[in-house]
Specification:
By secondary structure, the protein is mostly helical. The chain has 4 helices and no strands. It comes from Craurococcus roseus. Pfam families: PGPGW. This is Transmembrane protein PGPGW.
Amino acid sequence: MEYRPSIKRKAAGFSLLFLGVLGTVLPILQGFLFLALGLFVLRDQYAWAHSGMEKLRRRWPNQVAGVESLEGRMIGWFSRQRERLRLTRRGPG
């Protein structure tokens, strides 16, 4: 597995993990949800997060597949929006 270092993904992932840990103590946060999302974000950054995602994938394969599908759709949508902005800034041609 090739790991892709990204400061933004690491910051987001560790923030989600932190919220997950808080959520295990505080009743107003869904701790498990934030822990799972933190692992999802960090899965391409660290081997331990990748193995944690594999455990989640074995336990809840449909849910993990759905989140990965959503990620792919969001990446595609952001790419299309970026292209639209680039064409709009260029002006009529």
